Amino acid sequence: VQNAEPTVSNVALNPSQVYFGTPVDCQYTFSDSDSDADQSNVEWFVNGQAFYSGVPLPSEVNGDYIRGGDILTCKVFASDGVFTSLTSQDAAITVSYQDSDGDGLYDGDEFYQYLTDPNNTDSDGDGLSDGDEVNTYASDPLSTDSDGDGLSDGDEENVYGTDLTDSDSDG
What is the mean pLDDT of residues 109-132? Predict the structure, then answer.
């Protein structure tokens, strides 16, 4: 019996709306007329850059690798272990922006860029939100005392009216 060429179709990403931290599943239909097992190769791309591939099927990727605005693509190359297709069937989705804690910073930016907690409005507990520290005061959202003067950032802003980033702003 001669080996038949397998095919894949109906490639789709699930869920249909993806945020930072959302696991994403690449689903497809595999067909092989001589009933060989599915050994298709799945490749994952973020903004056109490969970041995961392999056999057996890595059908799900951890959503911590993606941020709002990224384009996530799943490419499936049909294979039965003997014959592997040279062309892929693809599905792509644009990752949505999300701010889980409502502090004004997107979850992916908190996780990758600022290293703050996307589920905690005030990661350092100083009384100022992470978003305000980054966007308004240019202070450190991971330090309760950004300028090292012994006063918390929250107290400098809300009690003393001094500069959060200048250790000698009180004269």
Answer: 94
